[in-house]
Design brief:
binds zinc ion; 65 residues; single chain
Length: 65
């Protein structure tokens, strides 16, 4: 598990309110599930805990044109 608090992560903004999480009041923890990168964030401004996934691969369908 990699724990980071600061500007050295790919998730820097609160997914709920958009506040900068790189300051001392923000918290970002990175962990992995298989090849997917997950981030647990906490924002002191809106007091929300969220999870963000940066998937290794996305499979999606495309509607017919
Ligand atoms: Zn927030």
């Amino acid at each position: 598990m990699d724990v980071r608090s600061g500007g050295n992560t790919d998730v820097r903004w609160c997914p709920t309110c958009g506040s900068d999480l790189s300051g001392p009041a923000g918290f970002v923890t990175e962990y992995w599930k298989a090849k997917d990168r997950w981030f647990l964030t906490w924002c002191s401004r809106c007091r929300t805990t969220t999870q963000v996934c940066l998937p290794h691969r996305i499979t999606a369908t495309e509607p017919e044109h």
